[in-house]
Amino acid sequence: MGSPDRFGSADRPGSAVRSHPRPRDASMPAVGNEEPESIADLPTARLPRVSLPRHSGALRRVRRRHATRLLLQRRGRARTIFLVVLCVTVLLVATGAGGGILLGVRAARLAMTLRSAQDHVHHAQSVAKQLSASPFDHTLLLELRADVAATDHDLTDAQTEAAALGPATQLLGIQGRASDGLTLLRMGHELASAGREALDAAIPILAAVSPSAAAAGGSAATPAATASPTAPTAAQPAAPALTLDQLTQARAVLSDARAHITRAEALRRSIRDPNSLGASVTSLLTAFDRVTPALPQTFADADTLLQAAPALLGVRQPTSYLLELLDSAELRAGGGFIGNYGIVTVAGGRVESAAVRDTYLLDNAARRVLPFPPEYSWFQLAPAMGLRDSNLSPDFPTNAQLAERIYEQESGGDTVDGVIAITPRFISGLLTLTGPIDLPGYNETVTSENLEAKIHFYQAHPEITGTLPAGTNTSERKRFTSVLGETVFARLRALPPAQLHGALTIVRDALTAKDLQVYVNDPGVYALLDRAHFTNALPPVAGDTLTLVDDNVGINKASQYTTETASDDVTVGADGSVTHTLTIHYAYDPHDDPYDPQGVTGFYDEIQVYVPAGAQLLQWSGLLSLDRVRHAGARDVFGGGIGLAPHFSHTVTLTWAVPAPATPTSAYSLLLTRQAGSTYALTVAIHTPAPACPFPTGSPLVLAGGMPTYTVPGLKGDTTLAVMWQSAGAARLCP
């Protein structure tokens, strides 16, 4: 049996009130078989009078203390009840019995209201923990909203009861604590109001962009009600699409929520002694202090996203994106050869279509008349540029803007609102959610493990067309890929709400690993993505930098059979100048290649090394020729080609110097930018002029062989290595 409610309230769910065999006057002491279990069962204001010897004052005090302890044990947390009893006692003495009883009742109501608010907060925390695993669960969102609204209501009532106590809160001994407590109540009310308003705006939007979640958890039209789980039925109407009014209202609510948070921050600063309010309150205030510095940027980002959402999500009119399917088995600077493309249409916050097509059909029909830009003059595989060769830069925004121009020209004037590029690794991640897919018309089951092999097999064997009617949007050679893409898309749309969080995690990880690259024309949304490092733009150079780029120019899928390792030996001079020696080793071992069963084709690679502008190439070896040293904005590029026969290996070495900075320091940083689609292993060793300072927690650098060393099997994303050392005769620089 659960413990009784500390205030014995029968109106609150889950409370338990002690019952007696028959009613009796509470003012009379128990007699006979009705003797109470303890003195704590008697009302404290009407304890029975007992005749005691004249000199038994100590005994009376002992009994009163014993009765008080029993009362505290039966009525819940000692801290809350002690404050209530203290307030009642002080008020009785200060104002007289009549007014004191009234104020005592108000104090009791205040304690009950705070207890109710605490219960709702605890339940809201439990719901929030469940939402962290399934943030689109409509039922949980409605339940959280109900808890937050109830907490807001309780805190409003608590402020009213506290204000009614009036001058009693100014008595000596409790004045400061009471003042901080009242401030805390107002702060809690502001935060609860912000949360309630934010959920009111967010729930309909989430239901619109995730209709399966809304269908599984109830209607989105009544966010204030507590919904119970309902099974979706055929007669259940679909959640409405996202509307402009919802987004406009969300921006207004966001502004109101920001005002509530600002007032809460001001109230937090006015709390003079948080420790007097208890350890749990102090912990919550500490957590609030940790998140407040990031709140202005969070609100600004959310407002930017809401401003751009109508165009981004196709609210006013459908929005289209150019989808590029990159084949990293034929690696290019932007992540892989663009063998397939598609147009993704978004309307009302939902993806409406995503057809996959063969880029050769588009490029060949347009006769490829667009000349290559001068910076790509090294690319000799075609006389003019097509969509399939539009990603020859490691900077994705550059590739995306070029792809949009090419698509508009080759399609006869069609325009898009952005570009999305994905690698097979991203699709493999999605297949871990959908499970194996039985492909219609083909006797094949595609899994995350065999995805790339199946795509390449059917591209190499276009005579295997399956049993489906011939399509018109792709070639027979790419028909398998087209059917696969549409089937995966259909499965993703039908994901249950419990798996949507997993999909978001895969998307986030793919953005970090550059297996998913996104570019949008809207400058506000682009700035938001760029701040989150999700655009795969070459970051600005703030010190030294290194980007190793490979372009497979052999017109084959040899990249998947090539193992690449790289090591960069860095020496920092006392004046801050830096010398790099980069060694790249390639081992080519083709096997089971459906395009080349005999394994006779070679691996031909164009190597490009992006370094800071002004760096001087000192020497090189292993390249067929060093045919370019060109400028690329804030970077220079050293480039050259190699050719490798099957089952052979090859090593390339380049050495260059980066000039000393104008103001030398006892610190060095190196920005490593990873090429999308690449999997090379990398080791960086840094020689400093003096012993390096200890590295901070979480630094990727370690001390190996007396020098800072960075080793990673496969660089997942961009990484900055930073090292400091102690200069001779200088003030202590090491932290």
Key descriptive features of the protein:
6-stranded mixed sheet, 20% strand, 735 residues, 16 helices, 7-stranded mixed sheet, alpha+beta, Immunoglobulin-like, disordered N terminus, 3 domains
What is the architecture of the largest domain at the second tier of CATH? 3-Layer(aba) Sandwich
- Classified by CATH, the class of the largest domain is Alpha Beta
The strand count comes to 20
Mean pLDDT: 78
Helix content: 25-40%
The rounded distance between the terminal residues' Cα atoms is: 57 Å
How many helix segments? Answer: 16
Strand arrangement within the widest β-sheet reads: 12-15-10-9-17-19-18
Give the low-confidence spans: 1-52, 81-100, 216-237
Concise description?
By secondary structure, this protein is of the alpha+beta class.
Describe this structure in words.
Helix 5 (175-209) runs antiparallel to helix 7 and helix 12 runs antiparallel to helix 15. The chain contains 16 helices and 20 strands. The strands form four sheets. It has a seven-stranded mixed sheet with strand order 12-15-10-9-17-19-18, with no helix packed on it. The two termini are 57 Å apart. The chain has helices spanning 57-74, 78-95, 97-133, 138-164, 175-209, 211-217, 244-270, 279-291, 295-312, 359-366, 396-410, 424-434, 451-460, 479-493, 497-513, 523-531, and strands at 319-327, 337-347, 350-358, 418-422, 437-438, 445-446, 516-520, 544-552, 562-572, 578-588, 603-612, 616-621, 628-632, 635-644, 648-658, 667-673, 681-687, 702-704, 707-712, 719-724. The chain has three domains: 122-229 and 238-307, no CATH class; 319-531, Aminopeptidase; 544-724, Immunoglobulin-like (Sandwich), CATH 2.60.40. The protein is globular. The longest helix has 37 residues, at 97-133. It is α+β, with helices and mostly antiparallel strands.
